[in-house]
Amino acid sequence: MRAVVIKEFRELARDRRTLAMLVVMPVLLLVIFGYAANFAVDTVSATVVGPGASTLAGDLEAADTDDALEIVAVDPALGPGDAQGLLRDRRSDLVIVAVRDDPDAALADRIHAYLDGSNLFSAQAGQRTLMEIVATDARDRVADVRSQVEETRAEAEQRQADMERFADRMADYRTEMTRALAAGQAPPAPPSPPATDALPDLPDIEVPAMDPDDFITVAFNPDLTTSWVMVPGLIGLILTFIGTVITSIGLVREREAGTLEQLAVMPLRPAAIILGKISPYFLVALLDMIVISALGIILFDVPFVGSGWLFALAALIFLFVVLGLGVLVSTLSQTTGQAIQMAVMLVMPQVLLSGIIFPLESMAAGVRWIGYLLPLTWFNAVAQGVMLRGADLGSLLLPLGILAGQALVIFGAATTRMGWILTHGGARS
To answer: Does position 209 have pLDDT exceeding 60, yes or no?
Structure first.
């Protein structure tokens, strides 16, 4: 038994990939979950538009005691008709329209807010923040009214006391005057009456609207349905799993079967071999994407309000990225087990850091930038934009461009690695 234990330790020490899985993966998961596993969005970016936007922005910042609202732009020239466009293009998480240019009115009666329901966690945070700001403003107004009422009541009580003292002095005056007249003396001077000015008017109590539906509109996902937000990301996640894990086994099978040398002597370029290897997986992944999208729309009532060709374009580019990533993994692995291990190490961060489970806005800055490097992050942005918001090509150029760049880089690396393997003896590399 001692010999078996020693042998296993030696084999594990030689298998660096397995050793990395046993040592690095737990540390990686701890760091990721520690810094990324957070559903709370602390700050919501807002754009204030409409007449009186500048004054309203100052009042909102004054009422936001928790600094949960970050006003990134103020534009009095824009109005309610521009709100959905700003949300659709992801230029802001929240658009607040100044519908009443009256600084003395309650905030709830001066604003109408528009939230992006496709950005679920930010929308929930924005709704909560607005309700807290409105409630704070209402409490302050009630406190001011209460203070004025107390001051008026105190003044009224003071005047009543003054009148009672004046009545006592008048009674004394009448007694003294009677005595003076009886004695033939001049009557005393009468006492001065207290002030008879009217009491200050009590302020008009204007009860603000406290129902969120009265001053908040949630666009693109009115009921904040979780499945509407999750399904576009799950489409990308399933494609990532098929493209990376399943495809990564392809070339490794050639190594283990001893047929890689046959590919090396065939008059084919590395790029042609890669395309040939991924073609079946590409077609299967396309079929899976169509089935998954259709089921998501049918079973969960997920809307598809955007362009079908734009969604198809994003899916094709994304498939090239994940399939190329799977081929690259297979070129770096000697066995099927190694390929699966490496593929899992690449898929796991995309599950946790792409924003489909934990919002990117709630992650620590260092972990968030890792999420911005992952293909699934950008496909999720395009899928949500097309399916839920009806975003056009212009507003999705950034994620599409990043996906296209990643496809070029990953395919270039896979082609280069394949050429090196074929040149240096296939299975012996």
So the answer is: no
